[in-house]
């Protein structure tokens, strides 16, 4: 995919030290109100408008959250130290589409991490199709795997086809990677209603852009971007700023909802989970909280003894703690791809208390601990043998034929309906049993032609 940043910049003319759309001239009478609302991270440079900040009334609200990009420049240690005392968290731009990475992100995010400033991230979306939306979402996560939450900044219509499908694909791609962390949609109301009115319902919340003095009531939202002229003394410039009147900062940062209007909840009643056990890695982590009260875990833990195989394309990494577990900071230990196709053992399972069916597992490779990984990166460990036998497909088989055993490390696709071979006799030259199972899968042929793998319960061995 090619971003439109270059084209956008070609349409801007630099006159009198200020960029204006279409090459229009700027005078001292120019006001900030001419900056299009909701151009967060786009080709409209916020810095350039600061020279005219006095011509617009600057609104200041407590607990304002700034969103920052390369237009604010590379920060210094001194600035970020001061910033930490001014904000509950910040939101950083990572990319403009997939192809253009924000020039200052790596530098600025390193300072946020160094001084403990919580941060979410956003991508200024430029996806051209529903498929391309998946790529942009995946690129955002890969470039910022440790962010507290993720935002699809969808305010520029570049997608062909069904725009709601594209926006939903963006969410569905990054949400499994984000786990319990929030995934938000950002836009202004009219744009959202035109292009993402259905998709927004899939997201964990809507971030509304509306530069006005009173909070809008026309679109339900968890965050309101109310101005582009909030002066931050720590940074020495005016920036975009947002507030939330319905959620506190913990909702955005904890990885588990605390709001009454959410489908998920968080149990903050104590230091242990519902099973009475604590994170098995408690002794190796550092507490996320600066207070004397230790935050509670968002996960329930159980001890298990099992084995898996890392998928050929795991899409997830190994961490020293479950990301956004609630009590401890976390960092990546290994790329998931480094163990693609490898068999691992696990001894602990952590499942989020909100009721999600997905879990994280603490994994070992050849006896060495390699970290916690999301369950979607794992496949069944399969033991293969090479029998020579014949099987007869049952009259009403309950399973179909596939190119590989289901839930294996490979990409699995159906090859034939089981019912199409009901009553037929097939030859078998390979069998596979999943770890912990008894019934095998068989690789079957009919008249010398490969049909696929089928579960043993759907055939009778002759």
TrEMBL record:
Keywords: Signal. Pfam families: Glyco_hydro_25, GW. The keyword Oxidoreductase does not apply. Residues 256-298 are annotated as: Disordered. The keyword Signal applies. One of its GO terms (molecular function) is lysozyme activity. SUPFAM superfamilies: (Trans)glycosidases, Prokaryotic SH3-related domain. InterPro entries: GH (IPR017853), Glyco_hydro_25 (IPR002053), GW_dom (IPR025987), GW_dom_sf (IPR038200). Residues 1-26 form the signal peptide. GO terms for biological process: carbohydrate catabolic process; cell wall macromolecule catabolic process; peptidoglycan catabolic process. Residues 300-383 form the GW domain. Belongs to the glycosyl hydrolase 25 family. This is Lysozyme domain-containing protein. It comes from Lentilactobacillus senioris DSM 24302 = JCM 17472.
